[in-house]
User: What shape does this take?
Amino acid sequence: MKWKTPEETPDDIDVGEKSTKAGGIPAVLSSMSHTFKKVGPLRSLSSLMKINQTDGFDCPGCAWPEPKNRSVAEFCENGAKAIAEEATKAKITSSFFSEYSVNDLAKKSDYWLGQQGRLTHPMILKEGSSNYEMISWDQAFKEIASELKALDDPNEAIFYTSGRTSNEAAFLYQLMIRKFGTNNLPDCSNMCHESSGIAMGEAIGIGKGTVTLEDFDSADCIIIWGQNPGTNHPRMLTSLQSAARRGAKIITINPLKEVGTDRFIHPKDVHLLLGGGTKLTTQLLQIRINGDVAVTKGLMKGLLEAEEKAPGKVLDHEFIAKYTEGSHEVIEDLKKQSWDSIVESAGVSKSEILKAATIIAKSKTVIGCWAMGLTQHRNAVGNIQEVLNLLLLKGAMGKPGAGACPVRGHSNVQGDRTMGIWEAPKEPFLKKLDENFKMKAPREHGYNVVQAIEAMHAGKGKVFFAMGGNFLSATPDTEYTAKALSKTNLTVQVSTKLNRSHLVTGKRAIILPCLGRTERDLGQFVTVENSMGIVHKSIGHLSPASNFLKSEPEIVCLLAKELFPDDFVKWDDLKMNYDEVREMIGATIPGFEGYNKKVREPGGFSLPNPPRDSRTFETENGKANFFVHPLPKDEVPEGKFMMMTTRTHDQFNTTVYGLEDRYRGIKLGRRVVLMNEEDMKEKGLVQGLQVDLESEFNGKKRRVERFFVVAYDIPRKCVATYFPEANPLIPVDSYANKSMTPTSKSVIISIEKST
Ligand SMILES: Nc1nc2c(c(=O)[nH]1)N[C@H]1C(S)=C(S)[C@@H](COP(=O)(O)OP(=O)(O)OC[C@H]3O[C@@H](n4cnc5c(=O)[nH]c(N)nc54)[C@H](O)[C@@H]3O)O[C@H]1N2
Ligand SMILES: Nc1nc2c(c(=O)[nH]1)N[C@H]1C(S)=C(S)[C@@H](COP(=O)(O)OP(=O)(O)OC[C@H]3O[C@@H](n4cnc5c(=O)[nH]c(N)nc54)[C@H](O)[C@@H]3O)O[C@H]1N2
Ligand SMILES: [Mo]
Assistant: This one.
């Protein structure tokens, strides 16, 4: 069916005061009201006490690591919301689907869909039918397997993964898919930190961060590019708070003054709850959207100037000489860049940049953190390599208190990659699969997210299977993607909650409901890897939402058994025996030898990280590489705007918890466009007026209607909207060089009053 804007969209907004600090009493109240209302007091308490404890489950909220000395309540407001969403008492039974047709449901808002509760029974939408109906698990696996077996080529199947899937499920899943014969394994990473992986791989030989949580205890300076930790990684604020308290400097680089990086009160600091909180950010560089290459070059230019004044005191010459290549070219480039062009492209003044550069120059140890503000632009790989250039100039790699920290999104997105969820796997990994599992893994690279959409659109992708996530709403170009999905023969979603991807389907569709992190899985535990490469256990304690649910590993094993009845891999045994799965992983993936033993140690174990552990750089030349990137051209034509899409304080990606973006003071509605007041005046717009937004790319126009204008402290010609409401504007063919990550933070749009 065709995608259109849900009819049930809230049609009013309320803009109040912005918060002045993150955390505090409102955060405590908000977590309590979310969990108590949805989950009930007893279930709430027992689940909140188990979050991120060594004998509990990994919070499905984000991938920020847990400290060694854990407190009783190792969670945050938004973690509590994520758990309430999963542990909710509300349930979707089969009668729900007879009451509402797929068409009826498509009219409902994302918020409403989420409120209906947990999926409880496998369902099928038959060809030509208007409603989902019950199907047995057995029959569901038969239908899926026969559709897959009927394909002319295994590459006509596409297997998506979102980043909550455990290591065990992910490993089994990719094994089944490669046995089936394809590398079509697009994942949420393609839209998220893919640019970080590529940039870091080229520069330092590993696609992962090089810091541990302890490094935050000794860093002199922490720089945060394009990240909103107050909302998306609230537990990071605890690390920032203690850093700020001991005098570390925090530089924030963001077009928005995000409350969470400004001030914070830890909910545990009862005596401080009514006070002003801790000031986190020392200096905010409020750049324009995509001003990061410029501002980072400016910071490095400032470092060179400081070095001239105090030779040998600013740059780490020893590190540069011994471990790196390309510094000369980078320094020459910095000398050639004029301050005028840097200031113009960054959107902040030379004196502001130099002030921040002075802080960095004086710091012996520097950590660079970043998230989606850097990764979702055409020049995203360049953004990140500029960050790495700065860190390398400071020798900020492989020593305490220093390093690169890409802050991951989904709680196991990093682990999924480690387990082989990747469309472009490396030969040594495939060779190991062949040896260990008596197979011939395909060598040809598969589709990433953008290529998967294009393949389905072109009729080349015929079966779409999703292990979690919400492909339709998370991907760019919603209408185009909807059309792509609807051209397939079968779409299958392994899900915990109802979402829009269940409503825009192939000719047939199947929903396989699964257990979540918080739920008991026959007494077994799974394992996950956090943003800092620590692998640890996660065990659910709550009784499952329904007796019909199966775990993700079991779902994979049952489908694999249907696909390959006489396989060398004993799929039937594995579904009950995750230790055995971990043995398989240990025999296949470096760093996981002795997995079962190591992961049973309290807190788990750390994966090898050559740059961090020994300043070893596994790049082609064995060095850490500097890269020179040009300043991005200012591509915003006269009268148009550069749009970013961002998350509110009340959502997890496409899951909408509520309609309030508390820290930004926006209530009741999500169809908003945040604009600079001067730009509004120039266009004759006032707050609360409704406008239509239109993007034009490669000759194709895309449009969304009736967004409310909100006056906001954002640089001129820059606007912000929320993800996923603005995704129909993001062109499928607009993506980052090399990583193909959709440019969700750089979309050129025009704005006109709605008629
Ligand atoms: N509660 C909650 N937690 C989450 C999520 C969630 O939705 N809700 N999502 C999870 C996932 S998958 C991810 S990837 C992370 C995302 O975490 P973030 O990356 O923090 O998420 P975004 O809301 O996309 O925010 C990006 C930030 O970048 C800024 N920005 C936009 N454009 C630019 C730019 O050009 N330059 C710079 N320097 N900054 C820019 C925005 O103002 C915003 O502050 O969070 C994870 N955690
Ligand atoms: N415009 C714009 N688009 C973006 C972004 C942006 O910043 N701007 N960010 C991008 C980023 S960073 C990411 S990571 C992607 C996210 O893309 P996805 O990961 O595909 O999307 P989510 O919204 O996280 O998926 C939510 C669904 O996952 C299912 N789910 C939840 N828990 C589980 C579980 O334990 N198991 C299973 N099987 N299913 C589960 C539920 O059914 C829920 O509806 O979106 C990307 N899209
Ligand atoms: Mo993400």
Notes: The CA atoms of residues 99 and 189 lie 36 Å apart. Confidence is low (pLDDT under 50) at residues 270-274. The chain has three domains: 90-190+412-603, 194-406, 639-753. The pocket of MGD (ligand 2) is lined by residues 162-164, 188, 191-192, 372, 376, 409-410, 467-471, 474, 494-497, 499, 514, 516-517, 552, 645, 653-655, 723, 727, 730, 744 (CB under 6 Å).
